[in-house]
Amino acid sequence: MAGFDENIVREYFELNGFFVRQLRKYLVQSRKKRVDEEIDLVVYNPSASRDGEQAGFQLFSADMGKIRRAIVVVKAWHTSRFTPAMLKSSSRIFDFLKKDVLNKAETYFSFGDIEVDSDAVDPREFIKILVLPGLPTNDPQRAESIELLKAQGIDGIITFSTILENLLRNVEVNHSYQKSDLLQLMRILKIYDMVKEPQMNLFN
Fold first, then answer.
1. CA-to-CA distance for 146 and 164, rounded, in angstroms?
2. pTM score, two decimals?
3. Across the chain, what does the average pLDDT equal?
4. Under 8 Å CB-to-CB from 94, ≥6 apart: which residues?
5. pLDDT of residue 59
6. Rounded CA gap, 47 and 68, in Å?
7. Rounded CA gap, 149 and 75, in Å?
8. What are the tens digits of pLDDT across the range 109-139?
9. Strands 19-22 vs 156-159: parallel, antiparallel or unpaired
10. Which class is 4-170 in CATH?
């Protein structure tokens, strides 16, 4: 069963035009994670150009059109920023970058009757994205964190603040989101002035 945080990220990618496959997880404490449980989402953007401009390392909503295929892992440790010390001590953060996991990812680009690219999918074409609460705001800790992530093979990061700001800005009070509890909750909060436009500056 997918967690709440993964659902937030799924809504974000779908809102930005991606097909999303959310991988099934099982909460079983007595066994090790299977290979296919290291990845949270596999996303595909049919409108992205193959030869388009490369996105930067820290990704924002304006960069979504530059991403064609990605595997996404969500680390929703909301009370912690990812510091160099945390990255060095928590090797499990990078389990999804193991070769057997990446090779498995190519089998996930099958969306029912939807044809996703006519040619074979090369795992090297996947952008490997980590969703996290945030990085240190000041150097040298921030620069060191980015270098550590890049050295492990991460291609890009998205912070939860970027995701939540984008969702809030795009939820319309005059539109019902009955199929999405998350978007419907955001809509209701906006209707009752619990979330105001100036408050969104807090996400910057």
1. 22
2. 0.77
3. 77
4. 152, 153, 154
5. 96
6. 8
7. 13
8. 554 544 455 454 555 578 889 998 888 888 8
9. unpaired
10. alpha beta
